[in-house]
Description:
The structure is a homotetramer. By secondary structure, chain A is an alpha/beta fold. Chain A has six helices and six strands. In chain A, strands 1, 2, 3, 4, 5 and 6 form a six-stranded parallel beta sheet that branches. The B-D interface holds B 126, 129-130, 133-139, 141-142, 178 and D 126, 129-130, 133-134, 136-139, 141-142, 178.
Amino acid sequence: MAILFFAGALRTDSSNKKFAREALRLAESLGKKGQFVDLRDYDMPLYDGDVEASSGIPAGVKKLGEAILAADALVISMPEYNSSISGVLKNALDWVSRIKPSPWDGKHTLLLGASPGAMGAIRCLYHARQIFDALGMYVFPGTMGLAKSYEAFDENGKLKDEKQIQQLQSLLEKFIKHAGI
Amino acid sequence: MAILFFAGALRTDSSNKKFAREALRLAESLGKKGQFVDLRDYDMPLYDGDVEASSGIPAGVKKLGEAILAADALVISMPEYNSSISGVLKNALDWVSRIKPSPWDGKHTLLLGASPGAMGAIRCLYHARQIFDALGMYVFPGTMGLAKSYEAFDENGKLKDEKQIQQLQSLLEKFIKHAGI
Amino acid sequence: MAILFFAGALRTDSSNKKFAREALRLAESLGKKGQFVDLRDYDMPLYDGDVEASSGIPAGVKKLGEAILAADALVISMPEYNSSISGVLKNALDWVSRIKPSPWDGKHTLLLGASPGAMGAIRCLYHARQIFDALGMYVFPGTMGLAKSYEAFDENGKLKDEKQIQQLQSLLEKFIKHAGI
Amino acid sequence: MAILFFAGALRTDSSNKKFAREALRLAESLGKKGQFVDLRDYDMPLYDGDVEASSGIPAGVKKLGEAILAADALVISMPEYNSSISGVLKNALDWVSRIKPSPWDGKHTLLLGASPGAMGAIRCLYHARQIFDALGMYVFPGTMGLAKSYEAFDENGKLKDEKQIQQLQSLLEKFIKHAGI
Lengths: 181, 181, 181, 181
């Protein structure tokens, strides 16, 4: 089966989209199947209980929920906005968690983060861990925070630094082994 | 000057909107001026760096930023979605923080939370405190988490329980005194 | 092999010691072997880098480290002091983490919490999860916060409420299955 | 009146003791009075409810509580152990919080952190902020995390880097102004 990779940002040139795609490439080199999906392709409004009551769960949310449900495991790369996860990612979490049973429940998940600063999204990953734990997901203890993300990728979206590639590959190996996938 | 009251939810019948309005009513009874604003009235898309780069900060975001900037202090009541603040509120924070200088900076802020469960949004308030601290806001240490929020308000939106009214009024008095407004 | 049960408090009559012992009793009823250890029996000073440099790791710390290393999984019940884990538990974590390789590394761990208040140690469990994740432990997403702990146990230290017994037993079953022990 | 400076570590050569002393030196250069106290001079056991019940609050705890009570404001520099505050500091917090009324209540507090790594105690400061907020303290939003602390001080315990001195002095000025002391 497959691992689902996505990023918690919408911007086309997002470092976190690149980071998630690199993780997919390395997972494939380890013999695993996977798929990258772009949140931009899942149309969803801001969560509004009135919208849910009158129109139900939007089609874009359902589609994302199905992709999550079908996956054996998740790898999510996220930017840090104001010391926490992005409103974009939180909104997707909030919407998808309204599907019953919750597609998040019991998913093995690896969290990654990329940020332009020196800290590599560390505070964001802290919040994310608590939120995803609360959703019943098995969040892998290891993570990788990529600092100075604007300089980290070449024009093909590959990590330039061989050490970072090794770090990410090693992390994926441990995650895959732990998740038993 | 005035205290700005708002809630981190869109739903018309939101308990947090009621809670914020009750706080306004009690602040006025203490002789303070204030204003309730509804996030629903500030049109804003999900944050997208491409949108910002091509079109700048949306008008709804600017309008909310101006209301925050003009206020002497903020009282924000927030729902707990998946153990953290709502995507709706986080998205508003993320967008408004893109205005330079940041309207959030240095604002005295009181955090409230209402939730249908027994915990009264306590985990959400924990995350919110970290996020708002990081935005340079002076977050008041005290808070009030309103549990079982669906039963807490009468048909006019007033808190039914006199003890809860006393608790909120006392909290507002301490906050107003501390903020020096 | 065995599951190690302990509590993050020293007091003889600690509700968390009772809670950990109840968890042991229920794990045994599920056919698992386990052992309860009392932090009071592991003599350890407050962590002091000078003491470590001059005298090495204290005997009590080594003994606790060996018990953790020998266990297949951990069940830790902890009190909430000032919204976080107790100094007693943190001090034990800090000392044991000085043993190389770290006995904590890779342990499947279930966190429990008992508190006299209404919240059931929820904020403490939040901090604990972050700390234990950072130690490389596999912290089970599920937990059980026991509120009003002073009234929860009978004179033999058993939970009075059959529903709480069911809840704890069900949680242990899920944890044991997930940990593969 | 005076600002009380202390560090959350016992080791004699602790970087955090140096950081707290530097903060005192700079506060004095701003015309403020202050005092550095060393937790090593306040004898206190690990918190134990049985000890408290049989012997009351230990003399070392009372003495520290009096120093805190007498201060107009606190500046605390803390190491990060296992992603959170040290057991030593948490134990001191837990003990002092048992004094009624709590010496912590309503104190303006500036948090600092020094660590040998690249992150400058950032996760520790996150936990500390939540704990101190819960104690009713007014934790200043700004902070300073000193990374690579082993190289940061000269043989007289002064910060070597003039930019770091400026940063700390500027932070102290803002804190003093905000606290109104």
